[in-house]
């Protein structure tokens, strides 16, 4: 068998294997699929909408783990502008909101994000901005809207923020 034929057979086998696995996952009840999707990071969770028509509504209704970090921002420069869109279009509860990137890029927007009704009932809030070496001693005031989560928060972590204004 020639190498080209072998590669073609390998590709065909891999595609068939992937399709079988996808069919198995699609047989799971929506509640189970929603639980799985809710454990995924934002980017991967959003990608599940492309799997099939049945999966499209799952990400929007599953609990959201909104993780915005510098790696994601560097790959998608407009992600800061997408955060309000994600918060407004996601119908399910938001379980986790993690911000970990250069704060100078969006400090003025954080208050608006934290005021979003989509974050009602938030369980985990992490505000860990990346700071340039010269800015390491600078403390930013904690946005007042962050205090509204105190009844539901299980985890709160913040660096470079102070509760003193």
UniProtKB/TrEMBL annotation:
InterPro entries in the record? F-box-like_dom_sf, F-box_dom-containing
Q: SUPFAM superfamilies in the record, alphabetically?
A: F-box domain
Organism, by scientific name, is Triticum urartu (Red wild einkorn)
Q: Which domain of life does this protein belong to?
A: Eukaryota
Protein name listed in UniProt: F-box domain-containing protein
